[in-house]
Amino acid sequence: MTFSIRPERDEEDRAFIERLNPRLTEVINAPTHSDAEVEAFQAAFTATAWEQSAGRSATFLAVDEANELLGYVSVREGSDEVLSEPCAYIALLAVERMHEGKGVAKALIQKAEEWALEMGYARVALDVFGSNTRAFEFYKRAGFQVETVRVIKKL
């Protein structure tokens, strides 16, 4: 399959990104939160992709030769908490189910890393829900390493 990566540019792109929210929430098992809470969190977090300051965030989409949208990555400035300095932060990454395993997510990660280097960041970070084992394995293959694990208890 042939595809390219381009910047997010219009409401059609944003609608596509929002349509992928169920792909993100279906892999979340958050035992201290209801499904409704997780879905509301995801919708609100996705909306932040357009609230970031210009120049310190970017959203890229994978598009095939027929102009079909395949997936996206949203990257922004984050914080390296060990060094207390800015780093790139991959906030969102999703690929249409039918296009998984075809190199789309890998290409999107590579584009996010290129953006991070262009912006002068020395590191890129991301968060993954503990229940998303497939993502953990993908990110390990992409060279990411676990540094912190957050645990939570409902009182």
TrEMBL record:
The keyword Acyltransferase applies. The keyword Acyltransferase applies. Residues 15-155 form the N-acetyltransferase domain. Keywords: Acyltransferase, Transferase. GO terms for molecular function: acyltransferase activity, transferring groups other than amino-acyl groups. It holds the Pfam family Acetyltransf_1. This is GNAT family N-acetyltransferase. It comes from Allopontixanthobacter confluentis.
